[in-house]
Amino acid sequence: MRRLLIAGNWKMHKSVDESVELAGILKSSLIDIVELDILICPTYTALHPVANILKGSNIALGAQNMHQEDSGAFTGEISADMLISAGASHVILGHSERRHVFGETDQTISLKLKKALDKGLTPVFCIGELLEERESGKMDQVLIRQLSSAYEGLTKAQALKTIVAYEPVWAIGTGVTATPDQAQSAHAFVRNWFRKTFDVDLAERIRILYGGSVKPGNIADLEEKPDVDGGLIGGASLKADSFTQIIENAIKKEV
Ligand code: 13P
Question: Suppose 25 and one of 41, 62, 157, 240 were both cysteines; which one would form an S-S bond, judging by CB atoms 3.0 to 4.6 Å apart?
């Protein structure tokens, strides 16, 4: 049985003070939640103060990206060790904004994934197709390319430490959510890829989150689908009430 994970990607939002404030509210309002896992991913500058606030809570802390090298002359970049020293246990990698706005390639993302695993960070590895790729029937091809590049050379034990997030690019920040059936069909496809590439055991255990305009009103129908193991939430994770409501609605559906 896979445990649900609800993760908030705060993207480039909130000052340090605002981040600490939101994390503090979430800590107290979600303290009794035991039914699922919770993760928040603030900006780099807020990681350490938010880590301090989250001590003793059931909320894990993640970063939104990292560089693949340990250290060096990489102005403006941040390493896995730095994230860990700031208190992060997770890192989002290959987000569609990194791929499509900042030009990150499958190759770079694959190096980042391996580095994160080597360092003991849990990667939340994002995949997803553009609208034109879906409409021209290339969705499967795109997902296979993104998955194959990232997982090539990983052992089963390493792959099991990753979390996948399927985020169709056309659904991110647009208000257009994939229908539960669209999400289920992509998730089943991804799980089947893991079955063929690794084995049934891994495919049954790896968590596949859905991301793209998840709101309190649509999480329950998405979660009801057998291959959807949680959500990676952007806009709706920026407010305590909507993020909390998403978590509560996801739990209700589980029971
Ligand atoms: P929205 O929930 O704002 O569509 O963002 C989704 C996302 O990109 C999460 O990583």
Answer: 240
